[in-house]
Amino acid sequence: MMNSEKEALVLDIRKKIYSLINKFPGIYFRELQRQIGIATGNLMYHLGFLQKHNLVKIEAHQKKKRIFPIGL
């Protein structure tokens, strides 16, 4: 794990989000939200943080967001 990646995954909630994205690549935003059980804005913030640190990418498909780990 690189230093930037370690820093990005310091919080348990981010580890949980990142773990689910790796387990279910292409997971829909709403499904990820249901699995984790956090508010929309909170999830958007953490996904933005993970995206900024090049750990995930978010793609829009027919008005739905799908999240993939980088490198897939």
Explain how this protein is built.
- This protein is an alpha+beta fold and 72 residues long.
- 54% of the residues lie in helices and 19% in strands.
- The chain is built from four helices and three strands, in the order H-H-E-H-H-E-E.
- The protein has helices spanning 3-8, 12-23, 29-36, 40-52; strands at residues 27-28, 56-61, 64-69.
- It has a three-stranded antiparallel beta sheet with strand order 1-3-2.
- Helix 2 (12-23) crosses helix 4.
- The longest helix is centred in the middle third of the chain and has 13 residues, at 40-52.
- The chain is globular, with a radius of gyration of 11 Å.
- It starts with a helix and ends with a strand.
- 15% of the residues are buried.
Structural class: alpha+beta
The value of Rg in angstroms is 11 Å
User: Looking at the structure, what is the overall shape?
Assistant: globular
Helix share bin: 40-55%
| Number of separate helices | 4
Show unreliable segments: none
Distance between the termini: 17 Å
The neighbouring-strand order within the major sheet is 1-3-2
Note the beta-strand portion. Answer: 15-25%
Strand segment tally: 3
Mean of residue pLDDT? 91
Which series of helices and strands comes N to C? HHEHHEE
**Sheet with most strands:** 3 strands, antiparallel
